[in-house]
Amino acid sequence: MRVVIAGGHGKIALILEKLLSERGHCVAGFIRNPAQAVDLAEAGAEALVVDLEKTTAKDVAKHLRGADAVVFAAGAGPGSGAARKESVDRDAPVLLAHAAEAAGVGRYLLVSAMGDHLRADPSTFDEEFGIYMRAKAAAEDAIRARTALRTTIIRPGLLSNEPGTGRVDLAERTGTGPIPRADVAAVLLALLDEPRLDGRTVEVIGGGTPVADAVAALASH
After folding, report:
1. Among 27, 62, 168, 184, which residue carries the largest CB count within 10 Å?
2. What would you measure as the largest C-alpha separation in the chain, in angstroms?
3. What angle do CA 210, 68, 173 make, to 5 degrees?
4. Residue pair 144/151 in contact by the 8 Å Cβ criterion
5. Separation between Cα atoms, residue 192 and residue 107, nearest integer Å
6. Marked catalytic residue, from 71, 132, 137, 188
């Protein structure tokens, strides 16, 4: 299959690109800085210079023609300010969804954020984190409404750069906990092959179940 990843130079994305290319899939990643193309090439991915903050769904759709799936793995990052949290964490995934629909892409995987932020008391967050969580919630809601897309939303726990274990806890509600970025990438890879989780929102943290088994078990319920 052909997979296009938004946030193609992110840590999760680079791992996922390598996993996909090693399995013979065609993978491309959106980057803003052309200098990052060499890192994508090392991961076996095609680099597409696309800034989702400065483009249109129509233009993005041109890059998605022929893709089987898109993955949104971008993020504004800590200290980026309110405006970029809204433009990257809220608006960019919605723009990608519009583009995917226009291009006839069937699957959409959204890497979101853990926390029951749709019902949480905003007073429990500091201002910056509250803006971030509201942006993530708005993006989730908007993408769920795109009925032409088969969407899975993934909410990972506290991300780390530790080596992946290949074992996770995957459920609609897992509770909080850490997870290596490599294991998030492995879960994304497995979800791309699991249509039974279309339309679902799942949480994932480090655990004791092999990734393939965890995905299959959740898909069967």
Report:
1. 168
2. 47
3. 40
4. yes
5. 8
6. 132
> How many Cα neighbours within 13 Å face the side chain of 57?
14
Q: 125-159, pLDDT tens digit by residue?
A: 667 777 888 888 899 999 988 778 899 999 999 99
**Which residues make Cβ contacts (< 8 Å) with residue 62, sequence separation at least 6?**
103
Please say whether the beta carbons of 49 and 32 come within 8 A. Answer: yes
210: left (phi over 0), alpha (psi -120 to 50) or beta: beta
Beta bridge partners, 69, equal 3, 107
Residue 150: Cβ within 10 Å count: 16
Pairing of strands 201-206, 167-171: antiparallel
Does the annotation mark 132 as catalytic? Answer: yes
Model confidence pTM above 0.90: yes
